[in-house]
Design goal:
This protein has about 250 residues and is of the alpha/beta class. The chain has a single domain, classed as 3-Layer(aba) Sandwich (Rossmann fold), CATH 3.40.50. It has eight helices and eleven strands. The structure holds S-adenosylmethionine. S-adenosylmethionine binds next to strand 5, helix 5 and helix 6. The site of S-adenosylmethionine has 24 residues, from strand 5, helix 5 and helix 6.
């Protein structure tokens, strides 16, 4: 395990990796920064990038790696799991540590899902394990603390997901950006369902969204579906409120 630093604040703990500049935030609040319960998230300061807001201001953003539960995904995505075809190939771009591909993989009803995401899953698992150990020490002294117990449960869930994302028998992980992946041409038209939910479509600025849409469109079969979360404009991305889901 790499050297990690832990800072405890009244409302959150932050675990930092000074070398990779990835921070893990675990917040006290029920609702995460995006208002949907993603209360454990990672930020990579190395991958800082700029987005242009509606008012044309330039604002510094960091890449967040979240792990939404399935119920936070739009109904259009949740419906796809009901498919009766065991040959359905799911592919998620920017899956982070979300539950969707984990659920598909664990259900073993469909083909192994494909994930395209450059996140450092090994580091994420190390950091989560570090926070789990630190919490276990605290809970050993006082196991009546409700928030700590809830946190520990969420962390265990995310560690479990990390393991599945890293297991080639369960998920085909392409640990790279969509842009790098697009150079592997034989993978064009490989998936029945392509999902980008808060992935590169939202993590890129307006200029790059068209490219992302084109690259993701190429991944789906002719009769397949592409489900993308689209932000109306970048100022709303920051607020994390206004977005629509396109099914193509
Ligand atoms: C906000 S998280 C969303 C994770 C998950 N879909 C969820 O809703 O909780 C964004 C994810 O997109 C990934 N990502 C960002 N840019 C990407 C790119 N160009 N290609 C592939 N993945 C990317 C990040 O590594 C991160 O895991």
């Amino acid at each position: 395990m790499q050297d990690l630093e832990i800072q405890e604040h009244y409302d959150k703990i932050v675990i930092s990796n000074p070398e990779t500049k990835v921070d893990l935030y675990i917040e006290e609040f029920e609702q995460g920064p995006q208002g949907d319960g993603s209360d454990v998230y990672f930020e990579s300061k190395k991958n800082k990038y700029y987005v242009v807001t509606g008012r044309r201001e330039r604002i510094l953003q960091t890449v967040k790696i979240t792990g939404r539960d399935l119920h936070s995904y739009p109904s259009e995505v949740q419906e796809t799991i009901k498919s009766k075809n065991p040959k359905t190939q799911f592919l998620e771009v920017g899956a982070g540590l979300a539950e969707f591909c984990y659920k598909v993989a664990m259900g073993r009803k469909f083909l192994k899902p494909i994930v395209i995401d450059p996140a450092n899953y090994e580091l994420l698992e190390d950091m989560l394990t570090f926070s789990k150990n630190s919490l276990s020490d605290k809970l050993a002294k006082d196991d009546s603390h409700k928030i700590l117990k809830k946190r520990a449960k969420k962390i265990n869930t995310l560690i479990e997901r990390c393991k599945v994302y890293r297991d080639p028998n369960k998920i085909q992980l392409y640990n790279m950006t969509l842009e790098d992946f697009s150079r592997i041409k034989e993978l064009d038209g490989i998936a029945d369902v392509v999902i980008d939910y808060w992935g590169p479509m939202i993590n890129n600025n307006d200029n790059k969204q068209e490219l992302v849409r084109r690259l993701e469109y190429r991944l789906k079969k002719k009769k397949g579906k592409l489900i993308q979360a689209i932000a109306y404009n970048c100022s709303e991305v920051i607020g994390g409120r206004s977005m629509r889901v396109d099914v193509i």
